[in-house]
Amino acid sequence: AADKINLIPQDFFAELCEQIIQHLNHKIPGVNTAELCQRIQTSGIEINVGDLAKIANIVSFLFSTAARNNLSTEELVTTLGNTVSTLPKHAVQVIRHVWNEQGKSISVSEDARNMATVGQFVDIKWKLGVAMSSDTCRSLKYPYVTVTLKVADPSGQITDKSFEMTIPQFKNFFRQFKEMAAVLETV
Fold first, then answer.
1. How confident is the model at residue 116 (pLDDT cuts 50, 70, 90)?
2. Which of 29, 68, 79, 106 sits CB 3.0–4.6 Å from 152 for a disulfide?
3. Domain range holding 176?
4. To 10 degrees, the CA torsion angle through 40, 44, 47, 52?
5. Same domain, yes or no, for 33 and 65?
């Protein structure tokens, strides 16, 4: 991963670290590596979203472990120097700066440590479509609903999950949401 970190310009790496700290502080649901990767690629750097997600996971683990062990900035940098000799100098500088500025703000309560990790819902989008025909059927005229859920997984990576439903399936889906809303009204 160190060779991939070397590819990322310092400003983008700093933005990634800032987003990770915000995620660990529960200020944002996750790190949008797809959007950040697209911006890095637009600037002319060849990196794929999978590699960027791995880097985000490593840095997130680094920050959360440092918070759990209550490390000072110097202890973190010394530990990095002893264990990861291949980490680029600019990455160590960014990690030092971000940890020095915001590291102590990471809250690592016992409840948070013991809590089961599940994904977090971020956004939903839907659209109605009609399949007119296919290579095996000339006249379908079959309506469907496409739903795209934006979800932050436990590590903070934001991903899109899409699925299609027939109209009867969508009506059942909608009915279940109405039932959930009714139950929430009683709480």
1. very low
2. 29
3. 119-185
4. -10
5. yes
Contact 83, 71 (CB under 8 A): no
Residues 6 or more apart whose Cβ sits within 8 Å of residue 156: 20, 23, 24, 29, 30, 31, 56, 60
Same domain, 95 and 141: no
Maximum pairwise Cα distance, the chain: 69
Residues 96 and 175 in one domain: no
Residue owning tokens 């089961």: 116
Cα angle for residues 134, 135, 136 (degrees, 5° grid): 90
Residues 157 and 94 occupy one common structural domain: no
- Distance, in Å, from the CA atom of 154 to the CA atom of 156, rounded to the nearest integer, reads 5
- Do 91 and 175 fall within a single domain? no
**pLDDT tens digits, 139-181:** 777 888 999 988 887 666 788 889 999 889 999 989 998 998 8
Q: For the chain, what is the radius of gyration of the CA atoms?
A: 22
Q: Is the pLDDT of residue 110 over 60?
A: no
What is the chain's length? 187
Q: Distance between CA 153 and CA 117 in Å, rounded?
A: 8
Whether pTM > 0.90 for this model: the answer is: no
| CATH number of the domain that residue 146 is part of | 3.10.450
